[in-house]
Amino acid sequence: MKPVFEKIVGQEAVKNLLAQALRQRAYSHAYLFEGPSGLGKEAMAREFAAAIFCSSENPPCHTCKSCHQVAAGTHPELRIIQPEDPEKDTTVSVEVIRTMIKDIYLKPYHGDWKVYIIPQADIMTFQAQNALLKTLEEPPDHAVMILTSSKPQALLPTVLSRCQKADFRPVQRERIETWLQEFRGLPREQASALAAYAHGTPDRAVKMLDSESYRQHVQLFLTLTEVLSEGRLSPLLEAGEFLQRDKNQTLEILSMWQEWIRDLQVISLGGEEDLLIHQDQIQRLKQQASLFSSRGYSQALTILEEAREDLINYGNLAFVSEMVLVNLQKCLVGHKAGTL
Q1: Smallest Cα–Cα separation from 250: which of 221, 277, 280, 223?
Q2: Which fold has domain 12-167?
Q3: What CATH number should be reported for the domain whose range is 211-336?
Q4: Looking only at Cα atoms, what is the longest distance across the chain?
Q5: Best label site of 147, 174, 207, 240, fewest CB within 10 Å?
Q6: 3-state secondary structure 65-81
């Protein structure tokens, strides 16, 4: 048996760990896929689940019935554990975990295994984590649980200690570039620009290729940088009104801002263009670097990080979004701040 995880970019250490388990058909009762967002932790969890159910010599084959069912989310022995109402709830409640526990001790009807994936396991309440502990301590032989988390510090130490850890790490730019050329058929120049933009997280490159809404968010962000460089507060607040619609989108935009400021720092210090994340925006960056105050870059990064923390800790979206623009203007184009 030679397990194949070609859909996942990089993460060779994780692939080797899971491949060995598949070859031996000996799985840990619980895995924790941990690492920064955008590295494919949930995608790997689904690929691993497909490989467990797959009967091919090189699982997951992506062609058998089981693989198709996993891809469609209809496999009878796969459970994805989410909040009761994913559109409204921000946590996985103890009731959701208790329902999972009742199900996990029932033997599988199809095959030998049942797989439970808990994406963003850190959003489980403490009560939910405590409820899960007994199952982690005394799991049924037929069950494999896969927890994913970008914030494992939010999980109870007793939960962490009962999971086999698989660390996901940022992927080298060259590896992402090669993958985009080989598996997405992109020309080298486009793959190189996207790999730089991905900044070690392949999901960003895939979103830029496949998601029209994500591309629109990027365009809105670029427009925002242009309006900021003009130095007028009223148009800036008007252009930034979209930040008040969705917290996750705003967190994404704040991350873009942080990377943009770092690119401006590279240019202001005369660094190599290969170090830039937004390599397709070099002229725009150079123009803005000539307009912004380089003395304000460090302060701007602090403002953005504090805004992220405020939003994550349930700060008021409208207030935080407006204040971050006001404060960015003060520190980057303060000499024009009096012009409304």
Answers
A1: 221
A2: Rossmann fold (3.40.50)
A3: 1.20.272
A4: 70
A5: 174
A6: HHHHHHHHCCCCCEEEC
